[in-house]
Write a structure and sequence with these properties.
Shape: elongated
CATH superfamily: MetI-like
Number of domains: 1
Helix content: over 70%
Strand content: under 5%
Structural class: mainly alpha
Number of strands: 0
Order of helices and strands: HHHHHHHHHHH
Number of helices: 11
């Protein structure tokens, strides 16, 4: 990697930190003299953050939420991509399942919590099921759109070269649909994290969501804000990891897009 490219990466990372650092600084300054029980100084919340999440019970709640979120999200990704590919390839199948798809994805997750609670009871199965159900639809629909958008010329060339169905799927169809699939994965990431918190608040007895709700009920507002800060950190780290995976898997797409844009300017 050349020095100019390293400089661009460092500059981009620094630019991305400007707004978060400015927001935290502003929060610190405006809340420094706060006497409100609901909006404690940021310094107090950070001290409570270290006290809560630096202990074994706090780490246990954080670990529980992260594991359940990952299980639900990975299940949603596998289901959405696995079913989205054949549906995207078959117009007849798309028409057949369209009513069920539209009905299911429009259901409010909050309304499903009592139903899933009765079916699975409290615990990991209930929470993972809710996370997967909520997060699967953006992945499923974007996979369908990505497969439908694959250039017919590419598929025809693959058939002319007598590639097997497995080879066409692995070498032509999936790479071409992957940018659209990652768009669905990005949308589902925030949805899955939100449902992780909601599920642990209303149907669980542990996890970060339960901790935040319990802190609010007991008027331990610094602890509540400490939980919210942890959720923001988990969301940020998850988004950065997904972006890293996307850059690795779609490096060819970024290079091709840059080459095409360069060609348009000439």
């Amino acid at each position: 990697m050349t020095t100019p490219r390293i400089g661009r990466h460092v500059g981009g990372a620094a630019a991305g930190l400007v707004v978060p650092v400015a927001a935290i600084t502003l929060w610190w300054v405006l809340s420094a003299d706060s006497a409100s029980i609901y909006y404690p100084p940021l310094q107090t919340s950070l001290e409570r953050f270290a006290d809560v999440w630096g202990t074994q019970p706090g780490l246990g709640d954080a670990f529980t939420s992260i594991v359940r979120f990952l299980l639900g999200y990975l299940l949603a990704a596998a289901t959405g991509i696995g079913f989205g590919i054949p549906v995207g390839l078959s117009p007849r199948l798309r028409r057949a399942i369209a009513p069920i798809t539209e009905f299911s994805r429009s259901l409010p997750i909050a309304a499903l919590i009592p139903v899933v609670f009765v079916i699975f009871g409290p615990g990991i199965r209930m929470e993972v099921s809710l996370i997967a159900f909520a997060a699967v639809w953006p992945i499923f629909l974007n996979t369908i759109d990505g497969v439908r958008g694959v250039d017919e010329t590419m598929l025809a060339m693959a058939r002319v070269h007598r590639l097997s169905r497995a080879m066409r799927l692995r070498c032509v169809l999936l790479p071409a649909a992957m940018p659209q699939i990652f768009s669905g994965l990005q949308v589902s990431l925030s949805i899955g994290l939100s449902i992780t918190i909601v599920a642990s608040m209303f149907g669980g007895s542990d996890g970060v969501g339960f901790f935040v709700l319990n802190a609010q009920r007991t008027y331990d507002m610094p602890a509540m804000w400490a939980g919210i800060l942890l959720l923001a950190i988990i969301g940020l780290v998850s988004a950065l990891l997904l972006e890293l995976v996307q850059r690795k898997m779609l490096a060819w797409h970024a290079g091709w897009r840059g080459h095409a844009q360069g060609g348009d300017r000439t």
